[in-house]
Each structure stands twice: as structure tokens, then as C-alpha cells.
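Incident log, support desk, overnight shift.

02:14 A customer reports that sequence design results differ from what the structure should imply. Their input is reproduced verbatim below. On-call engineer (initials T.W.) acknowledged and began investigating.
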């Protein structure tokens, strides 16, 4: 994470921040300009460490699912999605694609870190009664966040926030307190929802990914209908990091005719090996 010498000159810190802001731009797979200060490779390393810590905790709590039917279903669907991801994004062929299936029927959530490290909570299946097509839409969306370097993008925003706090602290001759605050802000920023642009991007990319893998694009619409119905009773964890604007279903619906041309026969993709963590 961002650190600076206790005696650092405020002017030097300001210069570092300005250089970072001016040079920290990249382009996403859809052509969107991204603010990125940390390389995708570095984001993968950080994500791997966080993932392994999470797995250790889940293992200690005996929360990792090993039910053969659930494991086979998750491996089959994510494997087809990953097969398309590796074809369209060859650099992801070296990722350590894996899924932890978490035994938590109260949590409706799934995520994919940089580098292909994924988690699925059993509440998704129990509370939403997902079809394979709907589950493919969820995981296509999550995998797209990783493919589009959204993890690096979120971490970069956190780093910039930390750097800004450090500058303020240095200018007020209280850099120690500032860096303590920056650390907290950075950690919080990494848990916040993706930007609206990133969410829209993952919607589009995820729908293409799932359709190419052989799954029904119309399931993206029925999925969000189920999410909306569930949220009427109680908030779903998935919606805390994946905001669902009122026009999301309509936007996804307009994409269906184009998606039907992507794979009109719904030919199923090959299954790429994906490690199911048990």
C-alpha cells in the first residue's frame, strides 16, 4: 500500500500525486479510459494474497462446499465461461482460475478477483433458484470485472485517495496521522461498489461471454428480475457491490437481439479446467 517517509517534503508528495494522476491512464477492453496506478500484474498478486487469507478463514470455519453435484455444476458453467475468456483474452490463460463455493445460504453473492480467483455463495442457488443460464450471467459479469482490470482500477482510486490524504497531512505537518487515515480509506475504498461505468462494462462483456459460452442471453433480464424481487424482502449482498438502477433490466433487454447473433445456435463452449477449492 502507499507509504511515505515521515519527514517527506509536502511539495515532493504533491509532485508524486500529480505525476501519478497525469500518467495513470489506461484503456479498457471496450475503449473506456481508466485511471490505473497499479499494474494488472500487481493487482493479481495482491488479490491472490487476499484470496488465500479468505480461504484459510473459510476452511477453519468449515464453510467450503464439497457436494459433488454442486461442485460439478459450478465447474461446468464457470469452465465454459473461462474457455471463452481465455480465447478472447489470451493473457488470462496463465491465471489461476479457481472457485470457492461458500456454504452460506443467507448470503446472495459472488465475486471474481484479478487473476481469476472466484467465490460463489450457496445463497445464490437457494434463494434465487438460479437456472444454469442465470448463473452463467452472474459469473460472466464477475469474470468480466477481472478481465477489464476493474480490480486494478479500484485499487488505484484507493491509492490516489491515500496519496491525497498524505499530501494534506504533510502540508499540515501531521503526516503520521494522515497516513493512518489513508490506510483506513484505502481499505474501505477497496470494498466499495464498482463505478457505474465499470458495472455497465461488466454487463456488456459478461453477456457476450455467457452467450459465446452457449447460455441464453435473456437470462440476464430474468436474473435481475429475481434480484429485484429478493431485494423487496431484504437486501442481497450482491446488490451492495452491484448497484441495480431501475433501467438496468431495460438496458440488458435491448442487448438481446445483438447477443442472439453472437451464438444463434447456443453452441456450448469447451470446459476449461477450473479448480474448485475444497
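02:41 Re-run completed on a clean worker. Output:
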Amino acid at each position: 500500500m502507499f507509504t511515505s517517509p515521515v519527514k517527506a517534503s509536502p511539495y515532493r508528495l504533491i509532485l508524486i500525486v500529480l505525476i501519478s494522476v497525469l500518467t495513470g491512464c489506461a484503456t479498457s477492453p471496450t475503449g473506456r479510459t481508466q485511471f490505473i496506478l497499479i499494474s494488472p500484474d500487481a493487482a493479481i498478486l495482491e488479490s491472490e494474497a487476499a484470496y488465500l487469507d479468505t480461504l484459510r478463514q473459510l476452511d477453519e470455519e468449515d464453510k467450503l462446499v464439497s457436494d459433488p453435484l454442486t461442485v460439478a455444476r459450478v465447474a461446468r458453467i464457470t469452465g465454459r465461461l473461462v474457455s471463452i475468456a481465455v480465447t478472447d483474452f489470451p493473457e488470462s490463460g496463465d491465471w489461476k482460475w479457481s472457485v470457492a463455493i461458500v456454504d452460506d445460504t443467507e448470503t446472495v453473492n459472488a465475486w471474481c478477483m484479478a487473476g481469476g480467483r472466484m467465490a460463489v455463495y450457496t445463497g445464490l442457488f437457494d434463494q434465487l433458484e438460479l437456472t444454469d443460464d442465470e448463473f452463467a450471467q452472474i459469473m460472466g459479469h464477475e469474470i468480466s470485472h477481472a478481465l477489464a482490470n476493474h480490480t486494478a482500477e479500484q485499487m488505484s482510486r484507493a491509492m490516489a485517495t491515500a496519496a491525497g490524504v498524505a499530501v494534506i497531512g504533510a502540508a499540515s505537518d501531521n503526516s503520521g496521522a494522515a497516513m493512518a487515515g489513508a490506510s483506513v480509506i484505502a481499505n474501505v475504498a477497496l470494498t466499495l461498489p464498482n463505478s457505474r461505468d465499470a458495472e455497465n462494462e461488466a454487463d456488456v462483456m459478461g453477456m457476450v461471454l455467457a452467450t459465446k459460452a452457449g447460455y441464453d442471453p435473456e437470462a440476464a433480464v430474468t436474473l435481475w428480475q429475481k434480484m429485484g424481487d429478493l431485494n423487496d424482502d431484504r437486501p442481497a449482498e450482491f446488490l451492495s457491490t452491484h448497484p441495480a438502477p431501475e433501467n438496468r433490466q431495460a438496458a440488458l433487454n435491448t442487448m438481446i437481439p445483438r447477443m442472439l447473433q453472437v451464438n444463434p445456435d447456443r453452441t456450448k463452449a469447451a470446459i476449461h479446467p477450473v479448480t474448485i477449492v475444497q
